[in-house]
Specification:
This protein is mostly beta strands. The chain has one helix spanning 2-20, and strands at 49-51, 56-59, 69-75, 86-92, 101-109, 115-121, 128-135, 144-151. It starts with a helix and ends with a strand.
């Protein structure tokens, strides 16, 4: 019990230290900068956009629809064990944003089950960089695939 409380206190202190800094003043760095990657904007294909693992795809915000959802196909590292939807989420790199994370369901598509399709609400996509994570059925210690999406 005491160890649990001490652990929670240590985590809370660490979070405060990262956000406020040792001086107690709010940190001047308010945006997490993703690593620089050379990307070229792509137009959507018939199934939407396709992203390979560890690849970045750039979208033009002005070319997205005003309402609805945007389909993004994520290429899985190996075929899904079954056709059940996969857990996924999209995270914004903008730390000042109120709703930085949106959980999504990734539908396994195709006869070979090598892609997962997410539907991202257009109102969530502002000009920003996003990390997409999908929990796969791979038999690894951490069955998680990551993809990067830029909206320009």
């Amino acid at each position: 019990m005491v160890a649990g409380v001490a652990g929670i206190a240590a985590v809370a202190f660490g979070a405060w230290w990262l956000l406020a800094g040792p001086s107690g003043e709010p940190s001047q760095r308010r945006r997490v900068e993703p690593p620089a990657v050379d990307v070229t904007p792509r137009a959507a294909g018939p199934a939407g956009w396709v992203i390979q693992p560890a690849q970045t795809v750039a979208l033009d915000r002005d070319e997205l629809p005003m309402t609805g959802r945007v389909g993004v196909d994520l290429v899985l590292g190996e075929p899904s064990a079954d056709a059940r939807p996969l857990w996924g989420r999209i995270l914004s790199f903008d730390v000042d944003r109120e709703n930085r994370v949106r959980e999504l369901e990734a539908a396994v598509v195709g006869d070979d089950r090598t892609r997962a399709r997410i539907q991202v609400p257009v109102d969530f996509l502002t000009r920003d960089t996003y990390l997409i994570e999908v929990k796969t059925t791979e038999k690894t210690a951490l069955p998680l695939r990551r993809y990067r999406l830029e909206v320009r």
